[in-house]
Amino acid sequence: MQAPLLKYRILPTARIGIDELRSYIVRSFGWDTWRQTSAHLQETIAQIRQFPESGHVPAELEGFVDDTFRQVLSGKIRIIYQVRDDVLYVHLIMDARRDLQALLQRIVLRLM
User: Fold this and answer.
1) CA dihedral in degrees (59, 62, 68, 71; nearest 10)?
2) Entry's Gene3D superfamilies (predicted)?
3) How does pLDDT run across 16-63, given as a tens digit for each residue?
4) Dist CA 99 CA 112 (whole Å)
5) Which three-class secondary structure state does DSSP give residue 62?
């Protein structure tokens, strides 16, 4: 029997990443490409909900909060997530070519 899918939440930091990706992809490649990318993202999140341990700890976050943060790639998009109390929290969705540490620093500075 298959385990039920985890509940999930897309956090505001991930929503910002989605908005930035959509804007870039639509401007550069058009709506059809965005629809395909969005569908692929949704499929990847469904896979994470089913197999949350399939991701690996990003090198930039090793040793941070007991290695509870994981990532998977969806094409050229990085999805950074965490599972707590049977809920999948999607923290970041970003282009895999972007600097994760620089992005995290910007986020922290916004919160201060």
Assistant:
1) 0
2) RelE-like (3.30.2310.20)
3) 999 999 999 999 999 999 999 999 999 999 999 999 998 998 888 787
4) 21
5) coil
